[in-house]
Amino acid sequence: MATIGTGAITAEFIAAVKENPQTEIAGLYSRNADHGTAFATTNGLPDVPVYDDLDKMLADPSIDLVYVASPNSLHFAQTKAVLLAGKHVITEKPAFTNPAQFAVIARLLNARPQQFYFEAARHIYTPNFSKLQRAIGGKTVTGAVLSYAKYSSRYDAVIAGETPNVFSPRFAGGALQDLGVYLVYAAIALFGKPIAAHYRPHMLTTGVDGGGIGTLEYPNFTVYLRPDKTVQSRVPSEVYLGKDTVWTDNIAELTQVGYYHGSSAAFDTLGGDQPANGMSSELARFTEIIQNDDRAAFAEQFQLSARVNEVLYALRQDAGLQFPAAVEAAPDVD
């Protein structure tokens, strides 16, 4: 497989690949060859080919899968290019900015039934997320609060008057598109698709949201979302089951999962040890689906990705969060 992007998340993915006996890195892409070579060396891959021409990398027959971890605004075009090259693709969340882009990818996959696409939403593949699901399963949900507020390492630059990529409309940035993806994925994986979605953002001078409060409306309950990149919060996430509460310390990491019975201060510990590398579980699952040609599991993951894309777009539209036309564009399938 190969990677696109040279950020910290790509380094983490490479570490997961090294842990998995079924996978290995056969190429890396960076727009800057020198930067790509340095990145390869830093990550223990000095002999792996580094490309600064995406088409050349995609023409390499030894590469069968590509991990896309470029800025958000580049995900669609690069995912499309990978599929057109006949390779599987894992695209970092959020994969695409709107349902029109997602529809193009769906048509490409329909025409290429031997290929797979996955959106990298690592938290929902972890053992503790499965335990959270089982704790809720079969019970009557009466509400939930899902929070992920983490002070961004790039927010100080915003305060200083700069516009880093993660806080730029040109790169499809902002809290909802970043941390909010974890919350929407968790909500839809746990409760299904909502009947309505609303978002009230805290806008920054860069033109994106630094944080906000979202609501997902279900027939008999409401899920509150709190993504934020301008504060460091330690508020847990909770799912309400009438008098009982299922909670996790962090919905994106799920280090701890517990079940409170009524008003008791004591709780049952549900969570166990999580993998040291948060991407290990999703990579193992994606690899398993590809190797077994498990079309049913693929269809389930694809539908979840589609629903997340639709709900994220609905939240952004409700808030009036706009990206440039070039970012929103969805060219026809070649």
UniProtKB/TrEMBL annotation:
Q: Which Pfam families match?
A: GFO_IDH_MocA
Q: Which residues form a coiled coil?
A: none
Query: What domain of life does the UniProt record list for this protein's source?
Result: Bacteria
Q: Which GO terms describe its molecular function?
A: nucleotide binding
Q: Locate the Gfo/Idh/MocA-like oxidoreductase N-terminal domain: which residues? A: 2-114
UniProt xrefs under InterPro entries:
Gfo/Idh/MocA-like_OxRdtase_N, NAD(P)-bd_dom_sf
**Name listed for the protein in its UniProt record:** Gfo/Idh/MocA-like oxidoreductase N-terminal domain-containing protein
Question: Which classification does the entry list for the species?
Answer: Bacteria, Bacillati, Bacillota, Bacilli, Lactobacillales
